[in-house]
Amino acid sequence: MWAIFTLILAFSSGTLSLDKLNMCMDAKHHKTSPGPEGLLYNQCAPWKNNACCTANTSEEAHSDNSYLYNFNWNHCGSMSPKCKKHFIQDTCFYECSPHLGPWIQEVDQSWRKERIVDVPLCMEDCHSWWEDCKDDFTCKSDWHTGWNWNSGFNHCPAGAKCRKWTDFYPTPKSMCEQIWSNSYLYTTHSKTSGRCMQLWFSGENPNRKVAEYYLNSALQMPSFTLTSILSLAAASLAMTMS
Ligand SMILES: *[C@@H]1O[C@H](CO)[C@@H](O)[C@H](O)[C@H]1NC(C)=O
C-alpha cells in the first residue's frame, strides 16, 4: 500500500517539476538548461540574460552555411541582406529562447528529439519578415524537408524551379506557417498584446509572460486535472490506511 502511495506522490510531483516557463528543448545545439550568456553575438544579444544558446551558436547563427545546420540561404541566388536578417533573428529565437515550453513536442528525427509547433507569432514580426523577403527567390515552401543535400548543403531538388517568393508565399501567414512546417502560427495579435511571441525585442524578454499566459489559459488544464485526480487518489488512499 505504502509503495503505491509513494509512487503516486512521486508521479504527481514529477509532472509539476518540469519548468515549462524556463527550459531548453532537447535539440541539436541547445544547452541543457537556460542561463546567462554575456557574450551573445549581435542579433542574438537580446537573450544574453537568459539563453539556451551558447556564444558560439549565436555567432554561427550569423554566417552563411554555418556548421549549425549547413543551411544554404542562397539556394536561389544570393538572399538579400534585408531578408537574411530575419532568418538570423529566427535562428536566434529558435536557438536561444528559454520560453518555448508550451509549444515543445517530441519528434522522431535523427538530429533532434524535440521541436516547436504552432508558436503564436506577433503579426508585426511576421509581416516585416515577409515584406523584407517578398522580392527574393526560393524553390520550395517547406524548408524543413525535400532538399538535395548531396553537396553537404541544401540545394533545390530536381524539378523545383526558383520562382518569386510570392509565388510560394502569397501572404505573410503562408510564409510564417509553411516555411518551418508549422513551427509558427500566424496571429493578428500585436507586440503590445502579451498574446504573441516576439522574434524582435530589446530589453527584458517579453516572451516569458506570453508563455505563462498560454500555459495558464489552455495548456495547463489537462495536467492540472491529472494532478488533482492523483492528489485526491493519494489522499483517499492515505485515509483508508490511517
Ligand atoms: C564554434 O564551434 C565549432 C565546433 O566546435 C567550431 O568549428 C567553430 O569554429 C566555432 N565557431 C566560432 C564562431 O567560434
UniProtKB/TrEMBL annotation:
Secretion signal, residue range per the UniProt entry: 1-17
Naturally occurring in which organism (per UniProt): Cynoglossus semilaevis
Transmembrane segments: none
UniProt entry keywords in alphabetical sequence: Disulfide bond, Signal
PANTHER family, per database record: FOLATE RECEPTOR, FOLATE RECEPTOR 1-RELATED
Coiled-coil blocks: none
GO cellular component: external side of plasma membrane
Keyword Signal carried by entry: yes
Protein name per the record: Folate receptor
Similarity field: Belongs to the folate receptor family.
InterPro entries documented for this protein: Folate_rcpt (IPR004269), Folate_rcpt-like (IPR018143)
Domain Folate receptor-like: 23-198
Single GO MF descriptor: signaling receptor activity
Lineage: superkingdom: Eukaryota
